[in-house]
Protein: Meteorin-like protein
Organism: Larinioides sclopetarius
Amino acid sequence: MKLFIYPIIFLLFTSLCEGGGPNLDNCDWTGSGTLEMALSRGVQPVYLRCNQGNIRWHYPQGALRIVLQSRSAGSPFSACIRRSKGSSGARIYLAGKKKLHLIFAAEDPMDLVKCVSSQEGQVTLYVEADPIADLLRRATAEFSYHLKKISRLSNEHLADECQPCSEEQLLHHYCSSDFVFQGKVTDLFHNKLLQVTELTVRISKTHRTNELEKFPNISDSEVEPKYVILQRPLKCGTKAGSGEYLFLGKWILGNPSLDCIPRISEWKKVRRKALMSRSNECLLNL
């Protein structure tokens, strides 16, 4: 089936259904393609309102129109997507106003995570089944998504994710991050395949971590050095600086993704200012 046929059907379907979908608090969706969908080139709507979840589409036929919305209705967010290992049988597109944008190419590795920005409080994905000769083939298209809120106050945008954090962002991320480490960068690797820069950090102090078991290299010993590998987007061109830093970030689809990397000297100034003005949202460790 040629690619130009489905987008026309999809855009017509979108214009008829936009804003009229059910408002459900679903996180995951599992379904199967049908012979009727294959013959009619049908587009099945899926509405998910959750911050993270999984989609499993067995025996892909026709297409899916998946609308992702944050639990904070109307708030801008970025949606990160990662295909599961062994996923096959369909292609994933981002629906723009007038055309579709391919998110994953066939040659992209399964571990690759790609993020897109919301439009008018939602992200619409179009998942198109690959052309097939055998309608009973064993194929499952599966991927995970993670929605990350974007601050209106800071005008944070997906294109600005490489910019240094403001004082307000530092304080917010310190209190809301999944992990906060203090330490030095000992190694830097630009992973072009996965489009991330991997920073090996020797930890001198753990300010907070919600899921310690996700960091297998952190030892409970007080003597042995502790190391973690953290990630930033490759496009940021991260360089290894000398001195000690504070590393603040979240787990995004299984990856420890960094939000802010201020120098310890900078963090101390921000901390002191917040304590004096009593603008801190949580306990700020030194």
User: Anything to note?
Assistant: Confidence is low (pLDDT under 50) at residues 1-23, 153-159.
